[in-house]
Specification:
Its EC number is 3.5.4.2. By secondary structure, this protein is an alpha/beta fold. The protein is built from 17 helices and eight strands. Bound molecules: hypoxanthine (HPA) and zinc ion (ZN).
C-alpha cells in the first residue's frame, strides 16, 4: 500500500452517474432489456476521448439511460462506496442529478431510495460515511431546477446539499439565484460548479448572487489573483478534479496545474475524481497524478487530505475526529 492509499481522505466532488463502469453499464442495460449503441465495453471505452465538457456530457447522459430501477441506483452507489472505501475514503459527499431520470418517469423515491439504502449499508458494512448532494442541470431552466427541489422535498432528511452541474458555458450561476435562495431557505448546504470552462466571473456570481459555500472546480480562478485572495480570506474551498480537467481539455498538462499556487495563497483546495471511469481514475489516481506531475511530497499530500475534511459539510465534531 502506498502513502496515498493509507491517507484518510474525504471525496467531495464525484457524480454518482459518472461512476458507472463500462461493464456495469452493459450489465444494467441487459437487466433492463435495453440495447446500447456500442457493441462492447471496448467500443464504449474508445469513445472516452473528449473535446470538452459538452462532448463528455453527451456520453454521460447516454449512460444514464441504463439506470431505471431502485436496485440500479442501489448497485451504482454501493459499487462506488466500496471502491472509495478501498482507497481510504472515509467520507463521500456524492452528487446526483435526478432530472435525467424524472424526465423518463422514474419516481424520485426509486432513485433516492436506492441511493440512500446503499449509503446506509456501506456505513454499516464498510464504515464509510456517505452523503448526497442533489444537482440541477444548468442547461435546463431555473423553473425546472425549482421543480426539482419540489420533487425531492419529501426526501429532504436524506439530502445534505444542493448544487449545480452540466454545461457551464452560457449558463452562469446568475440564471439560478432563485433556485439557490429556495434551497438555502429549505436548509440545504450549497455548492456550485463554476470556473471549469466558465470565466472567473462565474465563480464570483456563485459567491455573490447564489451564496454558495464551496466552489466545484474553480480552475479558472487562477486567471484572477484578487479572486484567489478572496477565496482564501473567506475560506471558500475548491473541489478540484485534476484528471477530469486533463481529459476535458480544461488544462493541457498537469505539470502546470494551479493547485500548489492556490495552496500557497491559503485557499482550502481539495482533490476529487468527478466521473472516475470516464476520466481514467478514482480518487487515489488523482492524488497520484499530482504527486507525479507536480512532484508533491508527503507534506502537501497530507495537507490536501486534511483539507478534504475541513471543506466537507460534515458536523464539526466529525471533522475534528477525522483530523
Ligand atoms: N462538470 C459539470 N457537470 C458535470 C460534470 C462536470 O465535470 N461531471 C458530471 N456532470
Ligand atoms: Zn463535477
Amino acid at each position: 500500500m502506498s502513502f496515498i492509499d493509507t491517507l484518510p481522505k474525504a471525496e467531495l466532488h464525484v457524480h454518482l452517474e459518472g461512476t458507472l463502469e463500462p461493464d456495469e453499464m452493459f450489465r444494467l442495460a441487459a437487466r433492463n432489456g435495453l440495447v446500447l449503441p456500442w457493441e462492447s465495453t471496448e467500443a464504449l471505452r474508445a469513445e472516452y476521448s473528449f473535446t470538452g465538457l459538452e462532448h463528455f456530457l453527451r456520453l454521460y447522459f447516454e449512460g444514464c439511460k441504463v439506470l431505471c430501477r431502485r436496485e440500479d441506483f442501489y448497485d451504482l452507489t454501493a459499487a462506488y462506496l466500496r471502491r472509495a472505501a478501498s482507497q481510504g475514503v472515509r467520507r463521500a459527499e456524492m452528487f446526483f442529478g435526478p432530472q435525467s431520470f424524472l424526465e423518463r418517469g422514474i419516481p424520485a423515491a426509486e432513485q433516492l431510495g436506492g441511493i440512500t439504502d446503499a449509503i446506509a449499508d456501506a456505513s454499516t458494512d464498510l464504515g464509510i460515511d456517505g452523503a448526497l448532494i442533489i444537482t440541477a442541470q444548468r442547461h435546463r431552466t431555473e423553473a425546472a431546477a425549482l421543480e426539482l427541489l419540489e420533487a425531492v422535498r419529501s426526501f429532504q432528511d436524506s439530502i445534505l446539499g444542493v448544487g449545480l452541474g452540466s454545461a457551464e458555458a452560457g449558463n452562469p450561476p446568475s440564471k439560478f439565484t432563485r433556485y439557490f435562495a429556495a434551497a438555502r431557505a429549505q436548509g440545504y448546504r450549497l455548492t456550485c460548479h463554476a470556473g471549469e470552462e466558465g470565466p472567473p466571473a462565474y465563480i464570483r456570481e456563485a459567491l455573490d448572487l447564489c451564496h454558495v459555500e464551496r466552489i466545484d472546480h474553480g480552475y479558472t480562478a487562477a486567471q484572477d489573483p484578487d479572486l484567489v485572495s478572496r477565496l482564501a480570506d473567506e475560506a471558500i474551498p475548491l473541489t478540484m478534479c485534476p484528471l477530469s480537467n486533463l481529459r476535458l481539455q480544461v488544462t493541457d498538462d498537469l505539470t502546470t496545474y494551479p493547485i500548489v499556487d492556490f495552496m500557497k495563497a491559503g485557499v482550502v483546495v481539495t482533490v476529487n475524481s468527478d466521473d472516475p471511469p470516464y476520466f481514467g481514475g478514482y480518487l487515489n489516481e488523482n492524488y497520484t497524478a499530482l504527486e507525479q506531475q507536480l512532484g508533491l511530497g508527503a507534506e502537501k499530500l497530507t495537507t490536501l487530505a486534511r483539507n478534504s475534511f475541513l471543506a466537507s459539510f460534515a458536523d464539526q465534531g466529525q471533522i475534528d475526529q477525522a483530523l
